[in-house]
Description:
- With 186 residues, the chain is mainly α.
- The protein has helices at 12-33, 36-53, 56-69, 75-96, 98-112, 124-149, 153-172.
- The two termini are 37 Å apart.
- The model has no long low-confidence stretch (mean pLDDT 85).
Amino acid sequence: MADEMGIDLDSEEVKEESAAQMALEEAQGVIAENHPLHELSEEYWKKGKDWLDSELPEENLLEWKSWVEMGRENSEAIESDLRSAEEALEVIQWYLFFIPVKIKRALHDQMDGFWDQYPDEERSDLGTAKIAAIAVERSLEAWEFLYKLFPKEELLAVLALLEKLREGLIEVFPNYPKFIRPGFDD
């Protein structure tokens, strides 16, 4: 195809242009990685993973089950809440690493400038930010459910990080709600 278009891929000009483009993309990646919003998302996944990997979830569930055995809680309600807790944990695990990846990509796309000429409904950076915001919302709901079951200080720290992420996405990408996801938002 390059031959058909009269482009010599081995020319110095093409090589220099390619090297410059790669250097620019690498620099944008570093900037996105060091952006406060991305750093906050990294802090979130680390804190969330630490909690999930700790003994606290299992200890909380055991404590909860003991309440049922002592008659302090209704077993049917507990079974329902246990199913909901398992669903909440699945949501958290699904989005834990997803959020920082999408935020970094949105920041990178925003710097690129390519999408500036497109309407907000079609911009890749806003679409990726919208997906990240949805993941943050769903994660926030899941963590809030767990906090209602196990009101522990460790969960408050995670909830605070997610709230900061929600606010940060709105601040950095104020028009992300305008993006239209085909098949979902129309």
